[in-house]
Specification:
Distance between the termini: 62 Å
CATH class of the largest domain: Alpha Beta
Helix content: 25-40%
Shape: globular
Radius of gyration: 24 Å
CATH architecture of the largest domain: 2-Layer Sandwich
Strand content: 15-25%
Number of strands: 19
Number of helices: 13
Length: about 425
């Protein structure tokens, strides 16, 4: 019997995606774990793997097709011991599923996942999972019995394991985000997108939005409409931090590590959040999630928009580790190769536009996070040092806070601690 390959849910918020590129063609043999397609989600372009062995008998969705709903049949796999002819004869049915999304086979209902998982564990039957998914689960310590498979016949695939959280601290933000995005929206970004904009006879071209850009538009609109922002700015002297950075880089040169100012600011924000836990929170209606770990989402500009890879537990990591991880994540982000667990979650964000010469700006909060730090350019300014006017390297840092969860006094305390850590940077290496 032919196996249906369905558009997978590669992130908790994914409802549809773009089939960017096929890595196989009809007639190719595939094995479990082989990469067969690249799929553009609302966050990144990700690779999709085969979960069964066989021959690609039909490709039902052409590469470049966007708006493909999760669960839509995109290809058929014929078992190597089966006759491929029946699959060709069955072509009309899958094609109809492609052109009319409502007729596509319905994926297994997520709500039914816990019960089958328990039965599998109790009966001793083998949990359906691809070999690659099993290896990743073993490495990450993920219990396969607690996952819902998005592969054929409910099989657990690579994306299911990578999207799973192995700890409460990282799982809670994702859950809160899903909850926030499921709320009815008044005046969402979609309304704006669907408006007819007059061109007034001005020469122009229509540029199609990527899935990432659509998501950015929707989430930022939601944030500004539903989250009451309060902005707090401090001027921070950078001379001591720049001196320490130079000394550290000289000692790290043999290891191939070069610290950036942003690496040190990531560490400073993480330590400040640990010292001021009232700001390391998420607003959740009648409750708040207060985190005991600072996972810093770092804004990275990519050709299709903006993505925020995460430095997990940044407060407990050395500056060299933060720098190494950040360099690797930034490279993967620009190549569109970030995995879901590398950008989903985070307890607070940092956005640095100082390298672009921006003196000061106010960043938009990324719900369910409750704060984001906006970093401006360091520049020579007149500055009072030891009661005397001098020239110092100074930057402006602006914190945006969710006023539902964070009072102005608590936000001010965080900014004060952040300023002290940057101006007395030995605390970053202690």
């Amino acid at each position: 019997m032919p196996i249906e390959l369905k558009m997978p849910a590669l992130s908790p918020t994914m409802e549809e995606g773009t089939l960017a590129r096929w890595l196989v063609k009809e007639g190719d043999s595939v094995a479990s774990g082989d990469l067969i397609a690249e799929i553009e989600t609302d966050k990144a372009t990700m690779e999709f793997e085969a979960v069964d062995e066989g021959v690609i008998s039909q490709i039902l969705v052409a590469e470049g097709t966007d708006g493909v709903k999760v669960g839509t049949v995109i290809a058929m796999i014929q078992g190597e011991d089966e006759d491929a002819a029946p699959a060709k004869a069955a072509a009309p049915a899958p094609v109809a599923a492609k052109t009319e999304a409502p007729t596509a086979p319905t994926p297994p209902p997520p709500v039914a996942a816990p019960a089958p998982a328990a039965l599998v564990a109790a009966s001793g039957d083998r949990i359906k999972a691809s070999p690659l998914a099993r290896r990743i689960a073993a490495d990450k310590g993920v219990d396969l019995a607690g996952l819902t498979g998005t592969g054929p016949n409910g099989r657990i695939v690579k994306a299911d394991v990578e999207g799973a959280s192995t700890n409460t601290a990282s799982a809670e933000p994702v859950e809160a985000r899903v909850t926030a995005e499921s709320r009815p929206s008044t005046g969402s970004g979609l309304t704006v997108q669907n408006q007819q904009v007059p061109d007034f006879g001005i020469p122009h071209e229509v540029v199609k939005l990527s899935n990432m850009r659509k998501t950015i538009a929707r989430r930022l609109t939601e944030s500004k409409q539903t989250v009451p922002h309060i902005y707090l700015t401090v001027d921070v002297r950078l001379d001591a931090l720049l001196k320490l950075r130079g000394e550290l880089n000289a000692s790290l040169e043999s290891r191939g590590v070069k610290l950036s100012v942003n690496d040190m600011l990531i560490k400073a924000l993480a330590l400040a959040l640990i010292q001021v836990p009232k700001c390391n929170v998420s607003f959740a209606g009648d409750t708040m999630l207060q985190y005991s770990r600072a996972d810093i989402s770092v804004a990275v500009s990519v050709p299709t928009g903006l993505i925020t890879p995460i430095i997990f537990d940044a407060a407990s990591k050395s500056l060299s580790t933060v720098s190494t991880e950040m360099s690797a994540l930034a490279a993967k982000a620009k190549d569109g190769k970030l995995q879901p667990h590398e950008f989903q979650g985070g307890t607070a964000s940092i956005s640095n536009m100082g390298m672009m010469g921006i003196k000061q700006f106010e960043a938009v909060i990324n719900p369910p996070q409750a704060m984001i730090m906006a970093i401006g350019a360091g520049e020579k300014r007149p500055y009072v040092v030891d009661d005397a006017l001098a020239i110092a390297t100074v930057m402006s840092a602006t914190g945006s806070f969710d006023h539902r969860a964070i009072d102005g006094a608590d936000g001010a305390e965080l900014m004060k601690v952040f300023k002290e850590l940057v101006e007395k940077p030995l605390g970053l290496v202690a």
